[in-house]
Amino acid sequence: MAWHRGELAAAEHLAREATVQWHRGCDRMDACDGIELLGVLAAARERFADAARLLAAADTARQSLRYLAPGFTANRQAAARAASQASHALGDDRFTQAWDEGQALTLDDAVTYAARKGGGRKRPATGWASLTPAELEVVRLVRDGLRNEAIARCLFIAPGTVKVHLTHIFAKLGLTTRAELAAQAAAHDLTAR
After folding, report:
1. CA–CA separation, 52 vs 84, rounded Å?
2. What's the rounded Cα separation, in Å, for the pair 16 and 10?
3. Which of 13, 69, 90, 151: disulfide with 95, CB 3.0–4.6 Å?
4. CA 71, CA 86: separation in Å to the nearest integer?
């Protein structure tokens, strides 16, 4: 494998392509392992914020899939080392922020995020078009009057993850309250996505 020969860019490219293909083929467990490998490779290439996001996304996806016995022990050790490197390089606050952002990603969003790191089309930074599919689901449920605990149950995520999604949504849309979000969501066509 290219990784073992020190060809990190080539290894990352191959891992990204494989992860996208596994995801398209609905092989969620292999896609989860691919996201984790991409996190390890991001750390090896000193892209520590990306590493933290991808490793957190893989960890969260693995829990939601109840896929708690991943791959080889060496892979788990490499992921733990990469997370430790990212934590050390970023410091506690930046690492926690990147990790929380990764935990807020669904597996679908994590694959999209990883594919974009390879030069794919980027989503705008603000506005309705900037919202991820997971964020749009949260918006729909806020529009329907659900609180964080109920949203978490509907989406099978932690209430803290809902809070992270809402923080991102408010920032992207320039809103500050749930009432504003619900009103704008009611006026906005959310079914076209």
Report:
1. 9
2. 10
3. 90
4. 22
Q: What tokens were used for 26?
A: 């609905």
In what helix (H) or strand (E) does residue 51 lie, and over which residues does it extend?
A: helix 48-64
Distance CA 102, CA 90 (A): 15
Residue 119 pLDDT > 60, yes or no? no
**pLDDT score recorded for residue 117:** 65
Cα(99)–Cα(103) distance, integer angstroms:
6
**pTM (predicted TM-score):** 0.57
Nearest partner of 165 among 109, 105, 83, judged by Cα: 105
Q: Which amino acid, 155?
A: L
Cβ contact 41:11 at 8 Å: yes
Q: Which residues contact 78 (CB under 8 A, 6 or more apart)?
A: 40
